Amino acid sequence: MTALVIAEHDNTALNDATAKTVTAAAAVSTPVHVLVAGENCAAVADAAAKIAGVEKVLLADNTLYARQLAEPMEALILSVAGNYDAILAPATTTGKNILPRVAAKLDVPQISEIIAVVSPDTFERPIYAGNAVETVQAASAKKIITVRTTAFKAAAAGGNAAVETIAAAADPGLSSFVEETLSKSERPELTSAKIVISGGRGLGSAENFHLLDKIADRLGAAVGASRAAVDAGYVPNDFQVGQTGKAVAPDLYLAIGISGAIQHLAGMKDSRVIAAINKDPEAPIFSIADIGLVEDLFKAIPELNDELEKRGLGRKA
Amino acid sequence: MKVLVPVKRVVDFNVKVRVKADQSGVDLANVKMSMNPFDEIAVEAAVKLKEAGKASEVVIVSIGPQQAQDTIRTALAMGGDRGILVKTETDAEPLAVAKLLKAICEAEKPDLVICGKQAIDSDANQTGQMLAALMGWGQGTFAHSLELADGSATVAREIDGGLQTVKLKLPAVVTTDLRLNEPRYASLPNIMKAKKKPIDEKSPVDLGVDIAPKLKVRQVSEPKGRAGGVKVKTVAELVDKLVEAGVLK
Asked: Is B183 inside any structural domain?
């Protein structure tokens, strides 16, 4: 039959989590359709239509979906669910918010945060903060799945799918949007950046956290943080990498002043190269870091910046 | 108004679990068990509402083995009023848990259910959303703050891009994120008092819910290992290694 992927977007641009979810979806069921629900989001639907392997894009353009609140999104997805034997969403805060409602209404289990499709009904997913990997088989006729997008390559561009407008579903009238405070940044997004530089409690203050900015800008890196740094108020919650924050898998993860609690490691241990700077030689982060430097970070950060500049590495800042 | 808080007994967050040799699961023999940390935050949020005079009763529910009663007692010591234990022999999947909670909600008629956003064992992040859907209620997941006024809940949610605030018609389900509050430690007198608070026992059969698993766990394996690498002495050496690895250009 057919798989449906719920597009991740902000009404303007399609997030690349969508193309990664398409890759997972195609391993479960083909062809793949993408649902773009939003407001004034036709450009997003056009972008989704260009993902290779996508046969059709469903566009639900209505004020009701402007913020993709879970309750109206549930009703919309249920209105088309009969046509699909698999419904997938990226395991973003949007996907995690919406999809369990759909699964419950369809009376089927959800398989959360898959990292591999073993066969169309069997999946791998991390449990216990990534300390174990569970292989689960779902017998249900419909598979409801959220996808850890760092585990899948983005489907290539080059598609030419038809865009079909679908009607809005009735408003359940349970919730309304009040406001959004979004972190503004010129830097790449944490979950798709090639380089992530993360800071921990070792940085000591919100002001000190900005010491990472120069290096991040030079390397075109995203900035992340440990839970400790977020809890201490150095940076907002959307910086958090870990079991309950964001999972990242960049080419280079540079951990600065992060001790490496298992909950943090759960969110970054699939990075290609991990480098750590910490003054405590016993810090658990060194047990998984490919390259470790035992050094006071206040000495190491300016040195690192100088060294990068001297060798002309990264963008010229 | 009545607040219902489901709590789960899970492996303590400090324990690094090991996969069993036969790959049937993780080894939980003699491992320290505690209340799921997100559920502690949920209990704290509910007790705070009661202390602020906004909630009249806080009911704690746990679904699990007999020992889950200890988890309920912990929540009662934090300030919950009474408990309900739904005794199960096997681990119930999130959808089954949501159905059991639905049956309890239909009997108890709470105005608000506050759950942890995910349990740190199965990392599913589903139950609260599923319960809200089954009840036909709104939801405020990953709550960063929670305000109640005039029959509605205003929840600021921790989303990938920052914070999103939604207003929900009550009854509703709220799931907690880390920054909602810092859970209290129960005082000794409160621990003693909690021993006298009532806990009702029920079974899935009493509630008319089939909890047979729908997913088959084929195997539980160790994640791909990652050994520590080299230690370098200087920043210059660090940069050398990163260039060598091809991650700095």
From this structure: yes
Closest alpha carbon to B61 in B104, B21, B25: B104
Q: Is residue A153 part of a domain?
A: yes
Is the domain of A116 the same as that of A156? Answer: yes
Residues 222-261 of A with CB under 8 A from B: 227, 230-231, 236-238, 243-244, 246, 251-252
Same domain flag for A11 and A84: yes
d(CA B163, CA A65): 18
pLDDT tens for chain B, 249 residues long, are 999 999 999 999 999 899 999 999 999 999 999 999 999 999 999 999 999 999 999 999 999 999 999 999 999 999 999 999 999 988 999 999 999 999 999 999 999 999 999 999 999 999 999 999 999 999 999 999 999 998 999 999 999 999 999 999 999 999 999 999 999 999 999 999 999 999 999 999 999 999 999 999 999 999 887 877 899 999 999 999 999 999 988
Which residues from A are below 8 Å from B222, CB to CB? 132-133
Full-model pTM = 0.95
Q: In this structure, is residue A10 part of a structural domain? A: yes
Residues contacting B19, CB < 8 A, separation 6+ = A131, A132, B25, B26, B27, B220, B221, B222
Do residues A19 and A129 both lie within one domain? yes
* Residues spanned by the domain of A231: 195-310
Residue A186 lies in a domain: no
A107 and A247 inside one domain: no
Shortest CA distance to A146 belongs to which of A96, A81, A94? A96
Task: CATH number of the domain at A235, please.
Answer: 3.40.50.1220
In Å, what is the CA distance from A81 to each residue of A84, A122, A237?
A: 6, 21, 33
CB-CB neighbors (< 8 A) of A127 in chain B: 26, 121-123, 220
Yes or no, beta carbons of A244 and B118 under 8 Å apart = yes
Residue A173 lies in a domain: no
By DSSP bridging, strand B57-64 and strand B2-7 are parallel
CATH at residue B191: 3.40.50.620
Same domain, A153 and A275: no
